[in-house]
Amino acid sequence: MIASVFKYATITLAALAGLYAVLLGLLTTSKFQAHVVYLHKIQMTWFKDLDVPETFGFLRNQVTPFEIRNSDGVILYAWHILPIELYRKHESSLVEEPVGFVQDITSRVGFKLLRDDPDARLILHMHGAAGTVGSGYRVPNYWALAAGQPGKIHVLTFDYRGFGRSSGAPTENGIILDALKIVDWAINVAGVPPSRILVFGQSMGTAVSLAISEHLASQSPPIVFAGTILVAPFVDVATLVSTYRVAGTVPILSPLAHFPAAFNYLQRFIRDKWSSKDRIAQYVQANEANGERYRLTLIHAEDDYDIPWHHTPRVFWYAVNASMPSGISYENLEEKKFESRKDLGAAGTVMEWRTENGVIREEILRTGLHDVIMGYPVITMAVMRIFQEADSSFTC
């Protein structure tokens, strides 16, 4: 009996090892790797029509679905979301418009309310891997983003290439191109200056947010937004996969992290690096060198089982280190945190680093998981804090 159990256990383990070996082999191919990294074919909105945002809980024509064509021909699917108080004031004219997808958003009442209001603020929303603009906790996230000033804060969210109804296939360079096109639309079509734009990213979207923020801050003349909020950021893909578990349970490369030689070998096949640690450092350095005002907020929950929360202190350190001519070690920064961070009890901790030009803020919550946190008041507060620091006349 014991021998039989041992035999079947051995066969099972061998089969699992074989399947894992096949998985590792597939991960070295660019196409399969893209599906694992971006999960773009997992939509999570199969039974709802994105062109009917009302089925996601919005009011009639509170959301305008439309498309933006990128320079390389990729078509990006997007939502323009009106803040609730602004919607209330113009409800009658909004309700009278036809519902659904629009070919020319510039003809719509909602667009004109954004373009023609010199006090309007716009949040460019960069979502995480998998799903669409309407998936999971993203809809509550939009509500939380605008809640602090429900008469002024608009949200523009979109699906990267290969996601949802956007065309193409995802790559790091392609997704960055998509996000830059969204910025171009916001500034040059909607007419919103960078000083009234906030970039929000969650999970994979934090890497996208940092990529475009660094790119625009480093150009001449620089373009710097009112601020950037990063929820559940990660150091880079190589570091992430060493700990990452799909849905918090299924490991990808974490078992190999115990075998440095094998892990380092497989890292050579990682196509899209998404090096947030380098980009946040370059972003801070560029703004410090140019004397540009910048505001960064990093938020993470300790019970995040998808991206471990300890990524955020590392990313925070890369930013702070880049803000100082002589730098600061990770250990020394941790000592300074111990001395000066605010302990909010069950609400977590807050550490703020200020320079003559910038504010870098780290908020570690006790709870919030990976996605639920997006609908929390901490998101609303982060938005209002940045907009008010950028313009003291902007109040709720």
From TrEMBL:
<dbReference type="InterPro" id="IPR029058">
    <property type="entry name" value="AB_hydrolase_fold"/>
</dbReference>
<feature type="domain" description="AB hydrolase-1">
    <location>
        <begin position="123"/>
        <end position="301"/>
    </location>
</feature>
<protein>
    <submittedName>
        <fullName>2-arachidonoylglycerol hydrolase</fullName>
    </submittedName>
</protein>
<keyword id="KW-0378">Hydrolase</keyword>
<dbReference type="Pfam" id="PF12697">
    <property type="entry name" value="Abhydrolase_6"/>
</dbReference>
<dbReference type="InterPro" id="IPR000073">
    <property type="entry name" value="AB_hydrolase_1"/>
</dbReference>
<dbReference type="GO" id="GO:0016787">
    <property type="term" value="F:hydrolase activity"/>
</dbReference>
